[in-house]
Structure formats: structure tokens, C-alpha cells
Design goal:
Elements lengths: L1 H6 L8 H31 L9 H34 L17 H30 L6 E8 L2 E6 L5 E3 L2 E4 L4 E7 L4 E5 L4 E5 L5 E5 L5 E7 L11 E7 L1 H16 L3 H8 L7 E2 L4 E2 L9 H8 L3 H10 L23 H19 L1
Parallel strand pairs: 1-5, 4-10
Antiparallel strand pairs: 1-2, 2-3, 5-8, 6-7, 6-9, 9-10, 11-12
The structure holds heme C and copper (II) ion (CU).
Length: 357
């Protein structure tokens, strides 16, 4: 097209010279466009902009992403090539004060540059809609994990696995999983960058997220909604296991919370040891009070040991041990099934008594 504009100074329509000029211009335009498109493609492809994918949903999202980026690069290359070419070819000399040739709209061109974007945007919309629907459809028989978010911790519960709880999200490879997200206090947001999706956890409602892990490994679970002072520390891990390993883990965990050692299993599963020292469990955390001293602390608070222990777990704010920070002990444990809570309280009070001897 620029060749046409250029020719408007001396219209030689159809002559051999004009055809040659046109071919030359086209060649230059293509050369510049290829150069620019190549450079931009290199920037897009050679720099690892995103963490590697670890889920099928993420792969589909990446496809939309690259589909759109490819279109953008092509358009950018065309626009930039025409611009650069025009700057070089049609620049007015410093002493040239004359007006440019009077040019009116070009109907054919207008139709062309309206039709092309329409087609492209429609294509992006269709591809996105297909991906969105595939990313949210889940087979009837699927694993469900209840995710509870609160300032500033995640906890995970497996209703299909005997209500096993865990502070890490364990998932079987290649199996679609539905997360049911709850929040106990403020809005949080669940994000595993390698899984490619974010979903808010909102107090009072249940939100959902489907994940089909496609890579074994451990990935960070991040809260991606500013939720208070400890927001930056609201992290956990998503551990993708092979399905057999997952079944074994779930079975062991289920056995653990129902058998004789149930209390210890619940203690370990819920990460109590990362904050508390408790000799029978072999834990040495120092964020919270030393649980070996529970009997003395119950006496101090003027409550029976078991009642004090249960209340401290279900409602940590009811009694704040002196010298320790409030709002640090997670409040998620109130949602533990009663059997697990009973076992935990029994474990802490019984073993504690033995430890105090
Ligand atoms: C993120 C750290 C953290 C985790 C995890 C944690 N706690 Fe605590 N816990 C604390 C802090 C801090 C306190 C003291 C402040 C308070 O009473 O709320 C505390 C207080 C307690 C108390 C009262 C002790 C006393 O002397 O007043 C008990 C009992 C207790 N935790 C049990 C548990 C159990 C059981 C678990 C696991 C299910 C657990 N905690 C997990 C930090 C934690
Ligand atoms: Cu949060």
C-alpha cells in the first residue's frame, strides 16, 4: 500500500517502473517485518516468563496465552514494518515546507483492517470459551479437597479419605481434583503458579477450583490476596504424588487418625509441632507455649486440663498465654472432626501427664 501512496506524486499506473518499485517496496517491507517479528518472538520465547506448567488446566491457559501473543506479534510486526519503512522512505527534507498530497480514505483498506481484527478477536473469544469450559468441567467421580484459609495458614481436608487433614495439599498425578475453598476471617486467594489458576477464598461462601496435576513434585501454595500482616508468610506446599503413593498416604493417614496413635497422627498432620514443643511427639517448636507444661498452664488459667486444652485448640483467643502473641495459633482446628479433636486432646493431656512425672 505505501508504494501506492508513494506513486501518487507521479502516477505512472501500470508502467514497468511502477511495478518494479512496488516489488522492491514489498520486499523491503517483508524484510523489516521479518526482522522485527523475529526479534519480538525471541523476546517472547527465549525468556522464561512463566514458571513451568504442572497441570492440564495451566497447559490450556498457556495455549490461549500463546495464541493471543502470536497474533499480537504478527500485528506488531506488520505495523512496525510499515512505520519504519514509511519513516525511512517518506520523511520530508528539512527544507520541505510543502503540503502532502490530499488523500481520501481507501474503502478497500478500511474494510480489510476492520475485518481482520474482527476475525482475530472472535477467534480469541472462541478459543478462550472452549478452554474455560474444559477447565471447569469435572467428571462426576472425582476427588474433593476442602481448603480452609485463615490468617495466616492453609489447611486441607479430605472428606473422601476419612476426613484426614493436612497442612500440605497432597494430590494424585493426572486425576482431576475439586478444591472447595472456605475462609474463616477475611478474603484470601489460593494460588499455585505452576497450576496456573487463582481462586478467592471468601468468608461465608464456598468457591471451587478444578486442578488436574500433570507433573510430580512439590509446588508452592501462595495466598495471593493481601490479607493482613502475615500475608507474605501464608504459604504451604502442593505435593503431587503418583496415584499409588497418594492412596497409600491417604490410607496411612486414615489409619493413623483412627487407631491407638490417633492423637499423635492428628498432632503431626496439623503441623502443631512446627510451633510447639511437646516431648512425647518429639517436636521442638518455640513459636507457641511449651505443651509439656500444659498441666501447669491449665492450673494458672484456673481450668480443668482437658477443658483448657480443648478450648485452647478450638478457640485460641479464649486464653492467650502470657508472653505469646495472639492471632498466631491457627483457628482452623475448630473445624477438625470431633473424633480427631477428642484424640488430640486426649493425646496432649494423657502424654503430657506422663511427661510431667
Ligand atoms: C503457627 C503456630 C502454631 C501452630 C501451627 C499451632 N499453635 Fe498452638 N499456639 C500457638 C501460640 C502462639 C499460642 C499462644 C497464644 C494463644 O494462646 O493463642 C498457642 C497456644 C496453644 C495452646 C494453649 C497453650 C497455653 O499454654 O496456653 C494449646 C493447647 C495449643 N496451642 C495447641 C496446639 C495444637 C494441638 C496445635 C495443632 C493442632 C497447635 N497448637 C498449632 C501457635 C501455634
Ligand atoms: Cu491470606
Amino acid at each position: 500500500m505505501p508504494a501506492r501512496t508513494r506513486g501518487s506524486g507521479a502516477r505512472a499506473g501500470g508502467s514497468v517502473v511502477s511495478a518494479q518499485v512496488r516489488r522492491g517496496s514489498l520486499f523491503q517491507l517483508i524484510a523489516i517485518g521479518t526482522l522485527i517479528g523475529g526479534a519480538v518472538s525471541a523476546v517472547a520465547l527465549l525468556i522464561p516468563w512463566l514458571p513451568p506448567s504442572a497441570s492440564k488446566e495451566r497447559d490450556r491457559i498457556d495455549f490461549v496465552f500463546w495464541f493471543t501473543t502470536g497474533i499480537c506479534i504478527a500485528i506488531f510486526a506488520v505495523v512496525a514494518a510499515v512505520s519504519v519503512y514509511s519513516f525511512m522512505k517518506f520523511r520530508a527534507r528539512p527544507d520541505d515546507d510543502s503540503d502532502g498530497p490530499p488523500i481520501h480514505g481507501h474503502t478497500g483498506l478500511e474494510i480489510f483492517w476492520t475485518a481482520v481484527p474482527t476475525v482475530l478477536v472472535t477467534a480469541i473469544a472462541i478459543v478462550s470459551a472452549v478452554v474455560l469450559s474444559r477447565n471447569t468441567s469435572i467428571p462426576k467421580n472425582h476427588l474433593t479437597v476442602e481448603v480452609t484459609a485463615q490468617q495466616f495458614a492453609w489447611s486441607f481436608r479430605y472428606p473422601g479419605q476419612g476426613d484426614v487433614t493436612s497442612t500440605q495439599l497432597r494430590l494424585p498425578l493426572n486425576e482431576p481434583v475439586e478444591l472447595e475453598l472456605h475462609a474463616l476471617d477475611v478474603i484470601h486467594s489460593f494460588w499455585v503458579p505452576e497450576f496456573g489458576q487463582k481462586q478467592d477464598a471468601v468468608p461465608g461462601i464456598t468457591t471451587h477450583l478444578k486442578i488436574t496435576p500433570s507433573k510430580l513434585g512439590t509446588f508452592p501454595v501462595i495466598c495471593t490476596e493481601l490479607c493482613g500482616l502475615g500475608h507474605a508468610l501464608m504459604r504451604s506446599q502442593a505435593i503431587v504424588m503418583d496415584p499409588k503413593g497418594f492412596k497409600k498416604w491417604a490410607a496411612d493417614a486414615k489409619k493413623g487418625i483412627s487407631g491407638a496413635g490417633a492423637g499423635k497422627a492428628v498432632y503431626d498432620n496439623n503441623g502443631c509441632g512446627s510451633c510447639h514443643t511437646f516431648t512425647p511427639a518429639g517436636s521442638k517448636g518455640t513459636v507457641g507455649p511449651d505443651l509439656d507444661k500444659l498441666p501447669a498452664e491449665a492450673k494458672q488459667a484456673g481450668k480443668p486440663l482437658a477443658e483448657f486444652t480443648r478450648e485452647s485448640i478450638v478457640n485460641p483467643d479464649a486464653f492467650i498465654q502470657r508472653g505469646y502473641p495472639p492471632n498466631v495459633m491457627p483457628k482452623t482446628f475448630g473445624t477438625l472432626p470431633k473424633s480427631q479433636l477428642d484424640a488430640l486432646v486426649q493425646y496432649l493431656t494423657q502424654s503430657g501427664k506422663k511427661g510431667a512425672k
